[in-house]
């Protein structure tokens, strides 16, 4: 059985890569995928702590988080498509409509 | 399956987890968006393997269906839909890449420093097993989907129903956002 420290370590690595991707990439699609990575790291922790506590509440929450991630991706990709129609780019530093 | 997990489960989990991290790194650092999506797919499949190693079989299958079956295909559709080649010359990384990387590394070091005793201490070697008194006439490790359904539909029915409303809102909102012009 997977031990607690390896689960926490892997989830920490995944979350760090996700944060780094959100901060350094310009492409809005890649930023959305990195947000998904962070949600998956949180899911790993939820399942690990649920097994540690001996309940299934964390697994149920992980399932709910998965559904929320799907909804978030649908909305985010619709925003990306709408943005591409409006501004003809999905590079986030070209999107400066509020800059005045 | 149980014998395999009991003997080499931790190493198997580490292998799958490092594969997931490798997929994530290739997602972040690849120039082509399609390669990024392939790295994302690899990472999600490896996370499903991690779930299997933690004997959360229902969630592993749900991960395969939702991510590999749905979300990756959505991402691929949008990558094909928007044209990315026009802006290739402007570089893939932001201008604040160096401070961002420094901030992430500092945050990682701070996390390791604070949680070193928790994550790597001698007390953390306890394997993730279930307390049988809490499982309530149910072998949670052996009947995973039954246990998850009992948790969802007995304990957390209201969040589950709210999630269905949220999915409906996301569906209508996505259609309204991606429509050509408003009528």
Describe the protein.
The complex is a heterodimer of chains A (100) and B (183). Chain A is mostly helical and 100 residues long. Chain A contains 3 helices and no strands. Chain A has helices spanning 4-24, 28-53, 57-87. The mean pLDDT of chain A is 87. Chain B has 183 residues and is mainly alpha-helical. Chain B is 72% helix and 0% strand. In chain B, helix 1 packs antiparallel against helix 2 (33-53) and helix 2 (33-53) packs antiparallel against helix 3 (57-81). Chain B is globular. Chain B starts with a helix and ends in a 5-residue tail after the last helix. At the A-B interface, helix 1, helix 2 and helix 3 of A face helix 1, helix 2, helix 3, helix 4 and helix 5 of B.
Poorly predicted tracts of residues of chain A: none
Mean pLDDT of chain A: 87
Structural class of chain A: mainly alpha
Q: H/E series of chain A, N to C?
A: HHH
- Total DSSP helices of chain A: 3
Question: How are the SSEs placed, and which strands pair?
Answer:
The complex is a heterodimer of chains A (100) and B (183).
Chain A: H1 4-24, H2 28-53, H3 57-87
Helix pairs in contact in A: 1-2, 2-3
Chain B: H1 2-29, H2 33-53, H3 57-81, H4 97-120, H5 144-155, H6 157-178
Helix pairs in contact in B: 1-2, 2-3
Tags for this entry?
heterodimer, A: 100 residues, mainly alpha, 3 helices, 0% strand, elongated, B: mainly alpha, globular
Question: TL;DR?
Answer:
The complex is a heterodimer of chains A (100) and B (183). Chain A has 100 residues and is an all-alpha fold.
